[in-house]
Write a structure and sequence with these properties.
homodimer; 167 residues; DNA-binding
DNA sequence: TATTGTTATACTCTATAACTATA
DNA sequence: TATAGTTATAGAGTATAACAATA
């Protein structure tokens, strides 16, 4: 099957269903995070990463997988710092780098939103799934994620496409 | 299992993997649509809907499932109209409504981006999946989507959460 | 020279509320 | 009164490029 063939109807259906599901999930989750803890989803992710890492990460570590530009991270980190949820300081090992630390307030804030967050995810996503669905979904998503990560992320956009130059 | 219990590790893993996969997919797709056809993903979706509907839909029809506010749709439709890809006119049946029509240029633009779009989706999402994965994923996503649609969409955010008032 | 991170800036998108017009 | 849609406006987020500082 050539790479340029059209998606068959089942693939198309899966693609659209996946997009719709995640869009609705994302919307629900963002509402909850904003209402329950005044956090954007990106800020939430950054806090999760920091707590998982038991404290300290560099800006570059932190950016990986969360944000697609360095300045975007600086912006979000600036908001988190202003809110007192993280601290930034020059890294002693490498003075170019910035060491980011969660504060106690940051941990507290995360603890505050997490139950509601989980509740939304459970209600929207997991409620209609059985254990074997979970296993299958887990297997599939991990496989796809590994596949995506193994590709050069920035070349996801095809270089030259029929029509690219026609504008 | 109570609704407020923590997500077990497998659920958490599935949730994060799903989010990452769709985030990477979304990013790849948006880059391609912008580079290959100067369209945002929302605009792409609107064109797809209009073509699927064989021409004409009302603004409200069009909004459903694509956008979370009416003004957001007006904005995007305004861009599409300015680009000559759609037309808006008062609906004869109900003079409050606006009838939206794809132009030939709109169809052409969609035809222009679609191959590249499909290529990106295939490469990122479907490449590592076998037929039985597709079946499983299709079944699961359709089930979840039906479940989400059956809930009152705007109450996805819990009303009052521990900590809601502590800010 | 390459890398880390920030800043300035411009732009896109979204949401709320107020508004018009029709049913 | 309720519904369809637009407008005004303000805010959140993102990306690019230029920049400073360290490796």
């Amino acid at each position: 099957m050539a790479e340029t063939d059209a998606l068959d109807p089942e693939q198309l259906g899966v693609y659209f269903a996946l997009k719709e599901v995640v869009s609705l999930l994302q919307h629900g989750v963002e509402q909850q995070l904003r209402a329950g803890g005044d956090l954007s989803y990106v800020q939430f992710q950054l806090l999760v990463r920091l707590v998982d890492a038991e404290g300290q990460l560099t800006m570059t570590d932190l950016a990986d997988g969360v944000v697609y530009s360095r300045s975007g991270l600086t912006y979000q980190a600036g908001l988190l710092e202003k809110a007192g949820l993280i601290t930034r300081s020059t890294c002693p090992d490498d003075e170019r780098a910035t060491r980011v630390t969660v504060t106690d307030a940051g941990r507290a804030r995360l603890a505050e939103v997490l139950p509601g967050h989980i509740q939304v995810v459970r209600r929207l996503l997991f409620a209609p799934l059985a254990q074997n669905d979970l296993n299958a979904l887990s297997d599939i998503m991990n496989r796809v994620r590994d596949h995506m990560r193994s590709r050069p992320p920035r070349s996801a956009a095809p270089r030259k496409q029929r029509g690219d130059t026609a504008r």
